Structures are given as structure tokens and as C-alpha cells.
Amino acid sequence: MIRVEGLSKTFSDGFKALVDVDLSIQRGEIFALLGPNGAGKTTLISVICGLVNASRGRVLVDGHDNVDDYRAARELIGLVPQELTNEAFTTVWDTVSFSRGLFGKPQDPAHIEKVLRSLTLWEKRDSRLLELSGGMKRRVLIAKALSHEPQVLFLDEPTAGVDVELRREMWEVVRSLRDQGVTIILTTHYIEEAEEMADRIGVIRRGEIVLVENTHALMRKLGSKELTLHLQEPLEAVPESLAGHGLELANEGHALVYSYDAARQEGGSSISGLLADLEAVGLRVKDLHTRQSSLEDIFVSLVQERA
Ligand SMILES: Nc1ncnc2c1ncn2[C@@H]1O[C@H](COP(=O)(O)OP(=O)(O)OP(=O)(O)O)[C@@H](O)[C@H]1O
Ligand SMILES: [Mg+2]
Questions:
Q1: 183-188 and 16-25 as β-strands: parallel, antiparallel, unpaired?
Q2: Distance (Å, whole) CA 155 – CA 185
Q3: For residue 47, how far is its CA from the centre of ligand 2 (angstroms)?
Q4: Cα separation of 170 and 135, whole Å?
Q5: Residue to probe by mutation, ligand 1, list 7, 10, 41, most atoms within 8 Å of CB
Q6: Quick one: pLDDT at residue 293?
Q7: Which of 2, 237, 251, 297 is most exposed, with minimal Cβ within 10 Å?
Q8: What is the pLDDT of residue 111?
Q9: Which strands, in side-by-side order, build the sheet including 285-292?
Q10: pLDDT digits (tens, 9 = 90+) for 116-138
């Protein structure tokens, strides 16, 4: 649906906000772009949407070059911007209908109604934007972006500053859009959001895409696991014969923590080895639990690693 090739953006002050970015977004997927403040997420979206000119490279939207064939490319795209820029005195209905008109599409009250209902804004259709809560204003932005029936929807930090309940509600909205066949690209700081929502995740750092991976594969590949063994009797030190397992003593000697790589575990048998060795030393285990690192841990380690 979207193809980005060798894209670079250097601002007039010489700042390189995007460096040789290649990216392909499949039709119908939810793609999350994850990166720290200033990484280039908004810049990348702005270039794809044709709001900012690229210094090098090109963008194809469903095969349409977004410079040579701007109108065709832009028509396919809906953009929910990061910043709230609403016309305070306009009503919900008018602002959403007007957005559709900007794309030269004929009026279609039935479509606008459908969009407003899907975002639970129907009751508020005659309210002026200044009368809405922050979360409602954000939904108006989504309604505007959907007014001209785009095939791709960009959501730049859709849930920044949004409470937990509304965030879940937004996720539902995004999922239902995807179910209707809309391709979704969202940026987020909330790793939990990427993990929960995205089919694939791209990590951007200092204008470079450092990783693009299927969400589950990413979790599997980079997710380390931890096995904590709670002991019947506390230990003073890790027994000599267990040294090879890289165990750490925790909870004042009442627990042993074993870290392992979930992927590597599949081939080897180090857990069985560990359990056998524990048996051999005569250590009695009271309880055990495992913990898989979250995407957050992965993200932090990835960003630090390359710093
Ligand atoms: N018009 C501009 N002129 C010069 N530098 C700019 C301009 N717009 C953005 N930048 C710089 O480009 C970098 C990337 O900005 P961008 O807004 O794309 O980051 P972001 O990943 O969206 O960050 P955030 O998570 O804070 O929204 C930043 O260092 C920013 O200061
Ligand atoms: Mg941004």
C-alpha cells in the first residue's frame, strides 16, 4: 500500500531528520512506528502525506508517486495529526463535512453520519468544537481524516494524553477500521500500545529505521525470559556445581534467578539441564515462576544499544 524508498529529509538548518529510510506497508495491516521524541516519526508521516518535501528518495501510495501524482496519492490517505488544531467555533458536523469537501468529494451525509456514529460523536454533531472534551476533540480529528473515505489512515500519537478508558476505546476504533479494510499506520510512545495493536512494528531512531519486525516475532526473537526458583531453604551462595547456569541469588538467598533466551531455548535443553543439576545438589524448590520481558524492555535495550 505504501512504499518508501531511500527517503532522506534534511531541514533548511542542515538537520538530518530522516536518513535513507526504506519501508513497505502492506495493505490491511496495522503498523506501529515506535521511537523516542524527535526520532523523526512526524517528519516521516508528513513526507509520506506530501506535507513536507523529501530531500531524496520517493514515496508510492498504492503505486502513485506522491510528488508526480500528488492528488491521486493524497486522496487515498487520511491523516490524524499529532497536534490538535480545531476550529473552535465550528460544529462537529460542519468541520467533518468540510474536510470531505477539501478532497473534492461530493457531499455524502450518510457517510458522515456513519463516521460520526462509529466514533460515538453522533450526539455531539451540533456541538461547537470548543464545547467538547479533549478526547472528543481527538475523535473529531479521526472523523475528519475519515471523511473522504481514505484507504490508509495515519494516526500520529492517537492516544497521547488520553486516559486509559479512552485509549482502549480508540484501539477498538482502530481495529474496526482495519476490519473494514483500512491500512493503519500509527506512531506511539506507548510500547504497550504497539504490542497490543500492531501487526508489525518499526523502530525509528535519529531518523533511521533501526528495525522492522512482525510483533510476535519481535517478542520471540528479542524477548528474554526469567525463571525464578523459590527455595525451601535459603542459600549463602550459588553452589559450585551450578556455576555454569549463570544463576543469580535473589531475595536474600531465598530465590535463584535464571535468565534465558526464549528462542535459543527451543533448540537446547538448558532448563532441563538446570533442573537435573538442582536435583543432583539436593536443592528443594518451593515454587517457581517465569517472566517474559515486555516490548518495553526490548525497546529500551535497543535504543540504548545503538546510542
Ligand atoms: N521544520 C523543521 N526544521 C528543522 N528541524 C525540524 C523541523 N521539523 C522537525 N525538525 C526536527 O526533526 C527531528 C524529528 O522531529 P519529529 O517531529 O519528526 O519527531 P517525532 O519522532 O515525531 O517526535 P515526537 O515523539 O516528539 O513527536 C527533531 O529533532 C525536530 O527538531
Ligand atoms: Mg511527532
A1: unpaired
A2: 6
A3: 13
A4: 10
A5: 41
A6: 67
A7: 237
A8: 95
A9: 248-250, 255-261, 224-231, 285-292
A10: 998 889 999 999 999 998 888 88
pLDDT of residue 223: 64
For residue 150, give the amino acid letter: P
Say which residue the cell 472528543 belongs to. 136
Closest ligand 1 atom to 13 CA: 4
Q: What is the pLDDT of residues 52-62, one digit of tens each?
A: 999 999 999 99
Long-range contacts at 10-19 (CB < 8 A, ≥ 24 apart): 10/55, 16/207, 17/43, 17/207, 18/43, 18/44, 18/47, 18/54, 18/207, 19/206, 19/207, 19/208
> What is the mean pLDDT of each successive set of 10 residues along the chain, which is 307 residues long?
97 96 96 90 95 96 96 94 79 94 91 92 95 87 93 90 79 89 90 86 92 85 80 91 87 90 56 86 90 69 62
* Residues in contact with ligand 1 (CB, 6 Å cut-off): 11, 13, 15, 17, 35, 37-43, 82
What pLDDT is recorded for position 35? 86
What's the sign of the alpha-carbon dihedral 236, 242, 247, 251?
negative
CA distances to 83, 131, 138, 167, 297 from 161, rounded to whole Å, are 11, 19, 10, 9, 22
Cell 481524516, residue? Answer: 145
Domains of the chain: 2-220 (3.40.50.300), 223-305 (3.30.70)
Compute the radius of gyration of the chain from its Cα atoms. 25
41 CA to centre of ligand 1 in angstroms: 8
C-alpha closest to that of 155 among 82, 228, 204, 248? 82
